[in-house]
Amino acid sequence: MKQQNKGFTLIEMVVVIVVLGVLVAVATPKFINLKRDAHVTSLQTIEGSLQSANALIFTKAVLQGAEKVGRANPRRRDLGQVQLDDTTVVQTNFGYLSNSGRNDNRSIANLETILNVDSITRLRNNRTVAASGFGMDAKNRNEFHFFPAGFNRTQLCRLEYESAQAPGEQPQYRVITDDC
């Protein structure tokens, strides 16, 4: 009686490994988009930092009697101010963080301090991008947008922040990730 070997030959094993390797190489990019995930996570992180900072700012605004000072009209200039520490004074609208002017350098410096980020770049036009950190564009005195590094203000990869519009209202946060 002749004995038969059971199992796979070396050539069959190599073919299976090559086919699996090709499938992994083709399918992996569709399931794992690490760059997009990193951009979305950075926007969610800045959103959480902004929410935490706003909680602190509102608490200080209440203690300093500035929670009802503000304006619903973004063109009016009567903003509140909150002294956070010896060197940081922020503009507020009904107790929450606001912008003192369109892309004001002082606002950007305050945001870097408040959010504890290394750099926020003022986006001056549609071609400007932040090389590192975040880009910021102020739509008006009530609303600003944060962009991850490498994005300009026309792209839909941003955190939109709108300060409170009346006493007792909360600020609005919107993470837009269509182009991330």
UniProtKB/TrEMBL annotation:
Pfam families: N_methyl. Keywords: Membrane, Transmembrane, Transmembrane helix. Gene3D superfamilies: Glycoprotein, Type 4 Pilin. It comes from the Bacteria. The chain crosses the membrane at residues 7-27. InterPro entries: N_methyl_site, Pilin-like. This is Type IV pilin. It comes from Paraferrimonas haliotis. The lineage of its organism: Bacteria, Pseudomonadati, Pseudomonadota, Gammaproteobacteria, Alteromonadales.
